[in-house]
Amino acid sequence: MSAEHPPEEHSHLSDMDLHVRALRTVLEQKGYIEAPALDVLIDTYENKIGPRNGARVVARAWVDPAFRKWLLEDATAAIASLGYTGRQGEYMVAVENTESRHNIIVCTLCSCYPWPVLGLPPVWYKSAPYRARAVKDPRGVLSDFGVTLPTTTEIRVWDSTAEVRYLVIPRRPAGSDDLGEERLAELVTRDSMIGTGLAKTPGKA
Ligand code: FE
């Protein structure tokens, strides 16, 4: 897979983003806002609030075969039915991990990411090494994240664009048969929905 889509299809800094950055700098210099406080806010949306939406989508797909089918056929509509819509999620595609195929998401040109289900992208997602290596050596990237898959498992890399954003449906972990949707959602990590991680096993930290 190569980066064949033109740059204008990607979400580079808009005028609004530039204004926001300039404003942030001025406010920081004048002492009205503190960078650490902003970092806490960003961390909240990056790790705590944002990805929980996606986790609920995945948990629903695990317990409801009809929803899973809908999600795979029309992710935008299935996700919207749970109330998760908005910018950077106008056209969603869900890809499902199985024993024979593992999916991993990247944006080779910038940082396209499904905001309504995952929140803000982590720093590494936007980094040049991840963007380059996810395509060339996805198994090596997975290893860096502590994930080792059987060589019989094909790894498929999906390149996000401004038009299409992907959500990985991780495999439902063993030992989760008796759990309800809420408990299942707690097992779904942000990285498992990008494909750089697996869902947590019940009972493990
Ligand atoms: Fe992009």
List keywords for this structure.
binds fe (iii) ion; mainly alpha; Nitrile Hydratase, Chain A; 205 residues; two-stranded parallel ribbon; globular; 45% helix; 11 helices
Mean pLDDT: 89
Structural class: mainly alpha
Name of the CATH homologous superfamily: Nitrile hydratase alpha /Thiocyanate hydrolase gamma
Rg (C-alpha, Å)? 18 Å
What's the arrangement of strands in the largest beta sheet? 1-4
Which sequence of SSEs, written as H and E, runs from N to C? HHHHHEEHHHHEEHH
Helix-residue proportion: 40-55%
Structure description:
This protein is mainly α and 205 residues long. The chain has one domain: Nitrile hydratase alpha /Thiocyanate hydrolase gamma (Nitrile Hydratase, Chain A, Alpha-Beta Complex). 45% of the residues lie in helices and 11% in strands. It is built from eleven helices and four strands; from the N terminus they run αααααββααααββαα. It has helices spanning 15-29, 35-48, 50-63, 65-73, 75-80, 115-118, 123-126, 128-136, 138-144, 181-186, 190-194; strands spanning 92-96, 101-106, 154-159, 165-169. The strands form two sheets. It has a two-stranded parallel ribbon with strand order 1-4. Helix 8 packs across helix 9 (138-144). It is globular and about 55 Å long. The mean pLDDT is 89. Bound molecules: fe (iii) ion (FE). Fe (iii) ion binds at residues 10-11, 107, 109-112, 160.
Write the layout of secondary structure elements.
Elements lengths: L14 H15 L5 H14 L1 H14 L1 H9 L1 H6 L11 E5 L4 E6 L8 H4 L4 H4 L1 H9 L1 H7 L9 E6 L5 E5 L11 H6 L3 H5 L11
Parallel strand pairs: 1-4, 2-3
